[in-house]
Amino acid sequence: MTKTAFITGVAGQDGAYLAQFLLSKGYRVHGMVRWDSYCEPVDGLARLEALGLAGEHVTLHMGDVTDANNLNLLIRDIRPDEIYNLAGLSQVHVSFGTPGSTLQINTAGTLNVLDAVRVNGLENCVRVYQASSSEMFGKAGAPQNEETPMAPCSPYGVAKLAAYHLAKTYRESYGMYAANGILFNHESPLRGEDFVTRKITKAVAAIEAGCGGALRLGNLDSLRDWGDARDFVEGMWMILQQDEPGDYVLATGEAHSVREFVEAAFKRVGVQIVWQGAGVDEMGVDAKSGRRLVEIDPALFRPAEVHHLLGDAGKAKAELGWSPKVRFDRLVADMVDADRVIFQDKPQSERDGPTWKMAG
Ligand code: G4F
Question: For residue 150, how far is its CA from the centre of ligand 1 (angstroms)?
Fold first, then answer.
């Protein structure tokens, strides 16, 4: 029997790859996108377009997780077998500036999804995947797994932790199939430029093409467990195929610093970075030419930082049979290569246009 999935946040990196994955499994896929994704120019649907999924493949609905009535009606009409709640404000640094809307979207939004299932009387026929995050571990020591006490240190982490507990509470109180995927950082060529990986790979490609200035970054020493988003969306699906709902860490088990990511990305285009100076005066220099390619921007430091994320996905491996296929070097190379294509395709006159901007 054909299953139906409903993805909130379908226009994001994970939403687009998950939609692609579920379509390949024969699912009927419905996705919710916010009204502003439809505005001209329709950049909001760019990821779905990049994967060839806009149009008839995914049925799109305009909506917003903060609008409970809207969600109730959508879920009533679609009657999905599986809901993947991926909508959210996902930029940790932004959450310090907009803590109120972060909680509205990431916590109250999750509550609205869970409650829409409940008030429509669908507790026994819908499975809900909640996009939880390793940012919930915050200051907890590494490595982190499902048993690690959580100590979030950003409004984003706090909002996600509350949502995680809401999913557990609905599971325990109403017998609802609600499962948390506690995902460590996962990246791809579709990653937004306000995350550090894509910011770096796009800057490297621009510099190689001769049209980028120095890359400005904040904390170079934080450690992240970076995997490939395509591996992770498969894990999301596997989580919802278990007989009993549970909570699972998805991670590669390998941590690298932002500094290492910078070095690997430049290495892909044949540039060796050497570091000079210290603190906010530190810079990354091309070992051959002496050109300054990386600078520190104190404005990009966060009020509080998660220093070391390193996931232990042993439970997912044992129970789901999930393990990541893509490792760090390949991920960096794929992302740099994808950004090189953007610059190769552009005539010199267009390369400094609005598509090339430093964000986040
Ligand atoms: O790429 P980031 O912004 O990702 P972050 O904060 O780890 O969050 C991502 O992963 C979480 C999973 O743990 C998700 F829940 C969340 O939604 C998101 O996907 O920053 C990574 C690191 C940080 O330590 C940051 O301080 O890079 C450091 N960094 C240094 N310079 C920078 C920059 N981050 C950004 N965004 N921009 C910079 O210029």
Answer: 18
